[in-house]
Model the fold of this input.
Amino acid sequence: MSDHDHHHGEGDHDHDHHHHDIDALEAAVLTISSTRDVDDDPAGDAIAELLREGGHSVSVRRVVDDDFDAIQTAVSRMADRGDVDVTVTTGGTGVTPDDRTVEATAQLFGKTLPGFGELFRRLSYDEIGTKVVGTRATAGVVDGMPTFCLPGSENAARLGTAEIIVPEAPHLTGLARRDAE
Done:
C-alpha cells in the first residue's frame, strides 16, 4: 500500500476520509467551578445549546469542583461510561493557581490535539487581542473520546463550540474511535 492510501488529501478521497464521521454525538458538558451551579452557568448553557443546534445530544451536564482530582475523575468517568462520545469542559484554563483543568485532563490524553488550542487562540485574538496568551484552552483524546477544554467565559465557550467543536467533533470522534478499536 502506498502512503497515499493512508493519508487522504483533498478531492476524490475526501468522502472516504469522512465515512467514519458520527453525525449525532452524545456529549458531556462539564463546568469546572467552585462557585457556580447548573442553574447559574451561562458558558455551560451556551455549549449545550450550540451542540443541540448542531444536531447532537447532551447526555451529561454537571458542575465539577475546581479541584485536580475531581476534574480528572469526572473526565475519566465520561470516557468510561460508553454512552458519551465527546466531552467539553468550560472553566479552569487560565493562569490563576486554582485553574487546574489543563493539568488534570492532559494526564488523561492518549493523544493531544494541539491544533484546537492554536485555532481557538487565533479566533479569540479577534475578540480579545493579546489577552489570548492567558488562555490555555486545549484538547485531546481520552480512551477514544475527544475532550475539549474551553475557558469559562460565555463568549469563549460560544466561540470554541460554534466555530471548532460543532464542525469538527463528528470527524474527530470517528477517527478517535477507529484508533481505539
Q: What stands out?
A: The chain is about 45% helix and 20% strand. Residues 1-15 have pLDDT under 50 and may be disordered.
